[in-house]
Amino acid sequence: MTNVILALVTTKKDSVGGSCPIFYCTDDDDLQKTSLYLEKILDAMAHEVKPGVMMMVKH
Description:
Elements: E1 4-10, E2 22-24, H1 28-42, E3 45-50, E4 53-58
Parallel strand pairs: 1-2
Antiparallel strand pairs: 1-4, 3-4
């Protein structure tokens, strides 16, 4: 299975939704740290969808 969205990480609660896990961050530094940790834990890639929203994808 390839190209699967594993999670979303965001600072903007009103900008995301759906059925995958969503991690809410307090600021951009927290967003970057959380995305980095999830990349390593999930063996995934973090992609910026738009400012304040990162998508964790398994390629």
